[in-house]
């Protein structure tokens, strides 16, 4: 399948989105040192409007950063990762906007669904490999003591995302 890549401006910096004809494969802040697994093979688009999936992502991000809680059900995602990473990312998508879970709560949710739960360290490792930031909300996972812990996009972004979501949740 042909991959396409474009940049989208957000209040927290430029993001790069990689899509195929049907779904999102990557979404990350362009200044991140993450290994971009698919983007090297993707064709750079001169405009995100050339692809309907990118239009969906752009509209979702605009609504999200405007303070609403847009629905993700129409945006298909196929992040590349191991089965364990996929399980962790899937469960992470169940964390409601404006809420956080600790690594232990995430572990409990995996166990409840009879999935390998791993240790807090392995959960952190899986979350750090999340190739679709914000849409797969790994920023909502915090340390057991309530502290903000690692976020591939930077702790300052994690803090801003959580504050924005809490404000949005309180207004809705």
Automatic annotation (TrEMBL):
It comes from the Bacteria. Pfam families: DNA_binding_1 (PF01035). Keywords: DNA damage, DNA repair, Methyltransferase, Transferase. InterPro entries: MethylDNA_cys_MeTrfase_AS, MethylDNA_cys_MeTrfase_DNA-bd, MethylDNA_cys_MeTrfase_DNAb, MGMT_N_sf, WH-like_DNA-bd_sf. Residues 84-166 form the Methylated-DNA-[protein]-cysteine S-methyltransferase DNA binding domain. It catalyses: a 6-O-methyl-2'-deoxyguanosine in DNA + L-cysteinyl-[protein] = S-methyl-L-cysteinyl-[protein] + a 2'-deoxyguanosine in DNA; a 4-O-methyl-thymidine in DNA + L-cysteinyl-[protein] = a thymidine in DNA + S-methyl-L-cysteinyl-[protein]. PANTHER family: METHYLATED-DNA--PROTEIN-CYSTEINE METHYLTRANSFERASE (PTHR10815:SF13). This is Methylated-DNA--[protein]-cysteine S-methyltransferase. It comes from Bombilactobacillus folatiphilus.
